[in-house]
Amino acid sequence: xxxxxxxxxxxSDIHGVLPALEAVxxxxxxxAADRIVLTxxxxxxxxxAEVLDLLREQGDRVLWxxxxxDRELVEYRRGERTEIPDPIGPYAAxxxxxxxxxxxAGLPRxxxxxxxxxxxxxxxxxxPRDDEELVLVDSRPARWAEVLAGLPPGxxxxxxxHTHMPYVxxxxxxxxxxxxxVGMPYGRPGAHWCLLGPGTDLRVTPxxxxxxxxxxxxxxxxxxxxxxxxxxLHARATDTEVLxxxxxxxxxx
Length: 253
Hints:
Layout: E1 4-5, E2 8-11, H1 18-25, H2 28-32, E3 35-38, H3 48-56, E4 62-63, H4 68-77, H5 89-95, H6 98-105, E5 110-115, E6 119-124, H7 141-148, E7 155-159, E8 167-171, E9 174-178, E10 191-196, E11 200-205, H8 209-219, H9 225-233, H10 239-246
Helix pairs in contact: 4-5, 4-6, 8-9
InterPro entries: Ap4A_hydrolase, Calcineurin-like_PHP_lpxH, Metallo-depent_PP-like, Pesterase_MJ0912
Pfam families: Metallophos_2
Protein name: Metallophosphoesterase family protein
């Protein structure tokens, strides 16, 4: 790891929402970034094949990390599980081509890059050690100590996704960054992402949600697509509701 990047665009939790991804990729600062880093849960949603095709068209500009939802689609397609917790998961798994299943299966779980102004940055989906455990912006210091234990020396910043809510916080001397979700935001609508280098800049890209909902409803065969799109694209779940529901899952009493 010798190359130092000046500016990275970080996209997480796209969840197969092609209109949201297209809006972010059209951002001038995303176009100008050295690389696009994906921190997982790329495909579990209404247009998984189309999202993968568009991202792979970007070539070497995209640096990939797999998330728990991507892993679940692969396991479902390979007969290693018979159900997926997310109701749209089985539909998304069946919508992938065999070559796409193989591609997702080969994605790394973490990646470490050097970024100007930030030094060594570790990218992961949920936490550095696990692709689905929960840490939240208000998780207690002892929880952060637990999930950050064992990181290599020199890692000053950890970038994660998974919870679909953007934040930046300091935890035991390390900066933790969550860019939020491109396709399934909680708290407020829009496609959330961030720029890294030399600082941390959380961004949200507005896009035409009614038009995107109509497009998904027209193009996606998932039976409940209209309700799915209305709920997730409009961010009907508030950040307060999600934090209250997920708080016990980060180990707090």
